[in-house]
Amino acid sequence: MKLSTPEFRAMQSLPRRLGQRFFEMPMFRQMGLDLQNKDVLEIGCGSGYGAHLLNQLQPKSYIGLDVMTEQVELARKKYPQFKFLIQDAEDLSQFENESKDVIIIFGVLHHIPNWRKAIDEITRVLKPNGSLFLEEPRGVDIKVFDAFFRWGHPNTDFGLNALDEYLAKGLKSSTRDGLRC
After folding, report:
1. How far does Cα 147 stand from its chain's mean position?
2. Which of 55, 81, 153, 178 is least enclosed by beta carbons within 10 angstroms?
3. In the chain, how many domains are there?
């Protein structure tokens, strides 16, 4: 889903970059994020600041995806050394099965109307023992932001409990016993 104009502006702001740098990245590092010599896919790369932060950890390869042409154009302009694609996370068919070591999501999954399909695609694309690192707001937080800022998130059943339940169900049936989230 494309961002509304107010949310698009907010995602380009200094507070958003500071949140990624001083909250999300340290949280991911505390969870064990190690990208050195790994193939990395970022879903919802936005204007590329996450790519800048992630590439400081020396991955073997990095690809950032976003559905918004405007975001990808900004990312390509600011960070031409990284690869960015206009791509929907619900269809990652351009990536081979078990081709990525790490997939990162900086608070974007709640924007995907069929987020379960995106999780299925992520699971398919991750290598055995691959890792998914994601940060997401609580469902109630999304509703509060929509009420105050009129950001217009999709009306889905997304929430942390639904996400936890779906991940637990999917991971139990997964052949990738080492998948960590």
Report:
1. 24
2. 81
3. 1
